[in-house]
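TL;DR need structure tokens for one chain.
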Amino acid sequence: MARLNVIVVGGGMAGMSCAANLAPHCDVTVLEAEDAPGYHSSGRSAASYIEPYVNRTIFTLTHASRPFFENPPAGFADAPLVTPRADLMIAAAAKAPLIDAYLARWSELCPGLVEVDAAEARRRAPLLRAAAVARAVADPNVMDIDVHGLLNGFRRMLKANGGELVTRSRVQSLARIGGRWRVDVDGRRSTCDVVVDAAGAWGDQLARRAGVEPVGLVPKRRSVVLLKSERDVSAWPMVHEVESEFYFKPDAGRLLLSPADATPSEPCDAQPDEYDLAVAVERFERATDMTVTRIERRWAGLRSFVTDSLPVVGFEPSASGFFWLIGQGGFGIQTSPTMGRLSAALVRGEDVPSDLRERGITAAEIAPRRAALVDR
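>> reply
TL;DR here they are.
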């Protein structure tokens, strides 16, 4: 049987993980519009591995990725992909009942979650004010992820198996002609059997160019700042507010802080909004004893969602050979080892990998025209 010829549009974590897993079986080319892969969302993520996240499906995809993070294939990375990171979710007195709801939702799936008293929470994160911590939950399974190492590892896999990454290649048009896709990029024309739409925030735009109805993708801006601290923060936990008003975590001797904003945006080279940054600082100073005198660095990225907050993965029923791989919101990096395997299997016409089927993952729940999207 002839090898499939596949063009993956988008060199972020979704596209690269899929392409890396396809390369041993297919002829694969990744087209990345920017100078390097991971320029947009993948390269701007705070990148933590968090199991109690979004819903049961995302938990499952995340948990199934853990063995890969802890023991990647030989030669995949030059250093560990993950390092343990203590973690606290905090609630002030007015929001204390929300801790019960959080534990009720996640304790069965994540039995390691444990409530710690306020004094212990403040011992672990000594900058927290007493008023900010009436209750707290510790998660022992959180890890920091080396995004650069992970993305570079998938690039190594791709190239080692004969795949190609072509940067500075923005797709101008796509057309289905004679049973194959014609892809035009900067005056160059290629053909392939399958186009994988891994264009991130631009996923619906790419679909329109192919004559495919969009799925309702909404990019949302997330802003981040990096703060200098006079204290040694390296052993401090990642701290989340129970309703996601803010989070902060140590990052290379600094504190990375975000207001956890999710502002709808057009696809773009996202830049932080000054109001969002001011909100982040105000919430942080209200919850801690630290006064922010200078922001060392600021940036923003786009996290893209559809209505049910699940990824969109699978062939488009109305356009033969057009494969969706978008909508991975804030979980695309922590699920990438599993999503790479899963998406590659579906591209090749196979079923969901057996280990994921045993965990309850189905192709139908992430399909592009599932009921949650059709009825939006």
